[in-house]
Design brief:
By secondary structure, the chain is of the alpha/beta class. Strand 25 (about 660-665), helix 17 (about 670-675) and strand 26 form a beta-alpha-beta unit.
C-alpha cells in the first residue's frame, strides 16, 4: 500500500471520552505525537459538542459514564452526519458478550480492556489514523480533480463563447458589407451553411408579386445524398409543397416552428427528397409589404453546428440586415423616381414656355394693330399659362398634403354635383383623343359631406388618368353605386393597364409606369397621389385593379354617404352680376412688368389705376389717391405687404379700402398673416383676373351708397 507524507502541521485529532481524569492522562501519554493530538472530554454531552466543532480520526469511548453512558453517546454520534462513519473504540474494564454485541450494533469497531496495554492501543489507533489520512488525501485529490474539471469546463465554455462571438461578429461584418437585397440573401445562406445547418432556405413574399421567392444553399452532408443515377442534381434541389405550408404557418404565428422527419426539400421532378432529421423555421420579416422566413435543416443533430442561442442571434442579425437592404433599395428607388420626376417637371414646364416664347417673338415682329396675330398670340399664351398654373397647383397640393395642412370646406352636398363637375372638367380630354365615355349614375340621390372642389379634383384626376393611358378610340366608363352607407365611384378603361409589380406603388408619389422620353401622355404622375390623400381626408379610400399590360384598369373610390330624402340644393357656378363701373385701384408690386400689365388690364375694365413699387411709395400714393381697392404684393422692399396693409387700416380715410393680397406665397400660414393684417382676400400668382375683377365689382356694389365718392370720379 502506498504511504502518503503528511506535513508536521497536518495533525490528526483523536477524541477520548472518559469521566476519569487519570484515564485522560494515560491515553494522551500513549497516543499523542508530532502528527497526532488527543482531545479529552469527560462526558457524552461534551463529546457531542466536540464533534460538531472538528473532525476526528477515531473516538475512544468509555462505556460506564454517569448521566449518558458510552452506548447512548455512540448512538447519538451515529445519528450525526459528521460522525456517522467515524470509528468508535469502546474502552471498558469488563466486557461480556451482551455488551459487545450491543456495542457493535451501535457501530463500534473494537473493544479495548482497561487498563489498556499501550502497544495494543497504539497499534489499533494507528490503523484508523492511517485510514483517516488516506481517506482525507483521496478526498483532497478528488476535490483537485473536480476543480481541474470545472476549470477545464469553464475554459471550454469560454472557447465556445469566443468562437460563437467570432462567428456572429464575422456574420455581422459580412451581412453589412452590402445593401443589395439579393446579395444580402446570398450571404445569409452562405454564412448559415454548414455552420448552422446542412441546408438553409430563405422564403420571401413581396407585396404585388403573386408567387413567393425562395433561395436555397446546401452543405457537404446534402451533397452526399445526391444520386446522379436517379436524375438528382444539386442545382435542382428546391423546397417541396409542405415547406411552403410550414413557412406560411411561421408567418401567421410570428414565432419559430420545428418539424422533424419531414420531406421538405428535394427534386420537384419526383427524383426523391433529402432525408432531414429536423428543420426549424424562423421569421425574418413580417411587415405588410414584405414577409420573409429562414429555414435551417440538419441531417444529423450533432456538435458540428452552432448551438440554438447562436442560431437565434444570427437570425436576429440577418433580419436587421435584410430589412436594411430593403429600406436602402426603397430609398434608392425613391431617389431615382424623384430625379425622374424633376426631369419630367422640367420637361412639363418647358413645354408651355416654348409656345409662350414663340408667341412673344411673333408679337414683337408683327405689324402694328394686327388683330389676327394678337388674337392668336393671346390664345396661345392664355392656354399655356393655364397649363402651367395647373402644374404649380398640383405641386402645392402635394406639399400641403405632405405637411398635413390641407384645409377642407366640408358641407353636405350631392354626389351628382361632384360627378357632373368632374365629367365637365375631363370631357375635353375625351374629345381630344376621340374616346367613348359612358356614365352610369346611381338610382339614388346620394349625399356626401365634403369639399366640392377637392372631391371634384379626385374624380377628375381618375378620369384624366384613364384618358391619358387609354389609346385614341378607347372606352372609359364612370359608374356610381350605393351600398351599406358607402358611395362607390368606379372608373374603368380598356387602356394600357398596369403591370403587377407597379400595382402596390401606383398611388405613391413620383411613381409612373411609363417614363419614355417621348412623354406621350404628359403629366407629372402625382394625380393619383393627390386623389388617394384627398379621398382619405374625406374618410374614404381608393383602390386599383388591373389584369396587366394591355388589359385596362379599374379605380374605385369609396366615400361615406347617405340617401337623400329630398332633392339636394345644387351648387351654382354662376358668379354675381355686377355693373361695370370703374373704381380707384392702387397696384403695389416690386415687379414693374406685373404692375404695368395688371394696370393695363384693369384700365381696360374702366378702373382708374395708380402703381407703386415699394411699401413707402404705396402709402404716399394711397394718401394722395384715396383708392377704393388696393392690390398688394407681400414680398415688397422696405415695408412688406402685411405692414402696408396694417398702415392703410390705421388711416381713417383709407380704413374702408378693399385690400387684396396678390402674391406667390400661398401657404395656410401666409393666409393667416394676411387675415391678421386686415387683408380681405388672398390670391395666388398668377391669379384668375376674372375673379379679381369680380371681387372689385362686388366691393363696388356693396359700397355704392358711400358718400366718399360724391363730387369726384369713381
Amino acid at each position: 500500500m502506498a504511504m502518503f507524507d503528511v506535513s508536521s502541521e497536518d495533525k490528526v485529532s483523536i477524541l477520548v471520552v472518559d469521566d476519569l481524569a487519570s484515564q485522560h492522562v494515560a491515553l494522551r501519554t500513549v497516543l499523542e505525537g508530532p502528527d497526532q493530538e488527543v482531545i479529552t472530554v469527560s462526558s457524552g454531552r461534551e463529546a457531542l459538542k466536540a464533534v460538531l466543532q472538528q473532525d476526528f480520526a477515531v473516538i475512544l469511548l468509555d462505556v460506564n459514564m454517569p448521566d449518558m453512558d458510552g452506548f447512548e453517546t455512540a448512538s447519538m454520534l451515529r445519528s450525526y452526519r459528521r460522525t456517522a462513519s467515524t470509528p468508535i473504540i469502546f474502552v471498558t474494564a469488563y466486557v461480556d458478550d451482551v455488551e459487545m454485541t450491543r456495542g457493535y450494533s451501535l457501530g463500534a469497531v473494537d473493544y479495548i480492556s482497561s487498563p489498556v496495554v499501550p502497544e495494543i492501543l497504539s497499534a489499533k489507533v494507528r490503523v484508523f489514523v492511517q485510514m483517516y489520512r488516506m481517506n482525507r488525501e483521496l478526498r483532497a485529490r478528488a476535490a483537485q480533480r473536480e476543480e481541474l474539471a470545472r476549470a477545464e469546463a469553464l475554459r471550454a465554455s469560454a472557447d465556445q463563447a469566443r468562437q460563437r462571438a467570432d462567428f456572429l461578429a464575422q456574420a455581422s461584418h459580412l451581412l453589412t458589407r452590402s445593401l443589395d437585397v439579393e446579395t444580402t440573401i446570398s450571404r445569409i445562406l452562405d454564412t448559415s451553411v454548414p455552420a448552422l445547418a446542412d441546408v438553409a432556405c430563405v422564403y420571401l413574399e413581396l407585396d404585388g408579386e403573386l408567387r413567393p421567392r425562395t433561395s436555397i444553399s446546401c452543405g457537404p452532408a446534402v451533397h452526399a445524398q445526391v444520386d446522379s443515377q436517379r436524375g438528382q442534381t444539386l442545382e435542382t434541389i428546391a423546397p417541396l409543397e409542405q415547406f411552403f405550408q410550414l413557412a406560411k404557418q411561421t408567418l401567421v404565428a410570428s414565432e419559430n416552428l420545428a418539424s422533424r422527419d419531414a420531406a421538405l426539400f428535394g427534386w420537384p421532378s419526383g427524383a426523391g427528397a433529402i432525408d432531414l432529421k429536423e428543420i426549424r423555421f424562423y421569421p425574418l420579416l413580417n411587415g405588410e409589404e414584405r414577409k420573409a422566413v429562414i429555414a435551417f435543416g440538419v441531417i444529423h443533430c450533432d456538435e458540428r453546428h452552432q448551438a440554438k442561442p447562436v442560431v437565434t442571434e444570427f437570425v436576429s442579425r440577418a433580419s436587421i440586415a435584410l430589412e436594411n437592404a430593403f429600406l436602402y433599395t426603397a430609398l434608392r428607388d425613391e431617389d431615382r423616381r424623384k430625379n425622374e420626376f424633376l426631369a419630367m417637371l422640367a420637361h412639363e414646364l418647358r413645354n408651355p414656355l416654348a409656345p409662350i416664347s414663340n408667341a412673344v417673338s411673333v408679337m414683337k415682329g408683327m405689324e402694328p394693330r394686327d388683330a389676327k396675330v394678337v388674337t392668336w398670340a393671346t390664345e396661345i399664351i392664355s392656354n399655356q399659362l393655364e397649363h402651367m398654373v395647373r402644374i404649380v397647383d398640383d405641386l402645392l397640393d402635394v406639399s400641403r398634403i405632405a405637411r398635413g395642412t390641407v384645409a377642407l370646406q366640408r358641407v353636405p352636398l350631392a354626389l351628382k354635383v361632384v360627378i357632373d363637375r368632374a365629367i365637365e372638367t375631363s370631357r375635353p380630354h375625351f374629345a381630344a383623343r376621340s374616346q367613348a365615355f359612358t356614365h352610369e349614375a346611381s338610382r339614388n340621390d346620394l349625399i356626401i359631406e365634403g369639399d366640392v372642389v377637392r372631391l371634384t379634383q379626385v374624380v377628375a384626376n381618375l378620369l384624366n388618368n384613364a384618358s391619358k393611358f387609354t389609346q385614341p378610340g378607347g372606352q372609359i366608363n364612370l359608374s356610381t353605386t350605393f351600398k351599406n352607407g358607402v358611395a362607390v365611384v368606379t372608373v374603368t378603361d380598356n387602356g394600357e393597364g398596369i403591370e403587377p409589380k407597379l400595382l402596390p406603388r401606383v398611388f405613391d408619389l413620383f411613381a409612373q409606369g411609363n417614363s419614355a422620353l417621348d412623354r406621350a401622355q404628359g403629366g407629372l404622375g402625382i394625380g393619383l397621389t393627390l386623389a388617394r390623400h384627398l379621398a382619405e381626408l374625406h374618410g374614404g379610400s381608393i383602390r386599383c385593379w388591373s389584369g396587366g399590360r394591355g388589359k385596362g384598369a379599374k379605380f374605385t373610390v369609396e366615400l361615406p354617404a347617405s340617401v337623400s330624402q329630398e332633392k339636394p340644393p345644387s351648387i351654382a357656378d354662376v358668379l354675381p352680376l355686377c355693373p361695370k363701373r370703374g373704381v380707384r385701384v392702387l397696384v403695389v408690386d416690386d415687379s414693374i412688368a406685373s404692375t404695368e400689365s395688371l394696370k393695363i388690364f384693369l384700365e381696360m375694365h374702366g378702373h382708374e389705376v395708380r402703381c407703386a413699387h415699394d411699401g413707402l411709395a404705396a402709402l404716399s400714393v394711397a394718401r394722395a389717391f384715396a383708392p377704393r381697392v388696393a392690390i398688394l404684393d407681400i414680398g415688397l422692399p422696405g415695408m412688406n405687404g402685411y405692414e402696408v396693409a396694417k398702415a392703410i387700416r390705421a388711416d381713417d380715410v383709407l380704413k374702408d379700402c378693399l385690400l387684396i393680397a396678390l402674391s406667390g406665397y400661398g401657404q395656410d400660414e401666409d393666409r393667416q398673416k394676411s387675415n391678421s393684417a386686415g387683408i380681405d382676400h388672398h390670391l395666388i400668382k398668377p391669379a384668375n383676373l376674372r375673379s379679381l375683377v369680380e371681387l372689385i365689382s362686388t366691393h363696388r356694389v356693396a359700397s355704392s351708397g358711400d358718400r366718399e365718392d360724391e363730387g369726384r370720379p369713381a
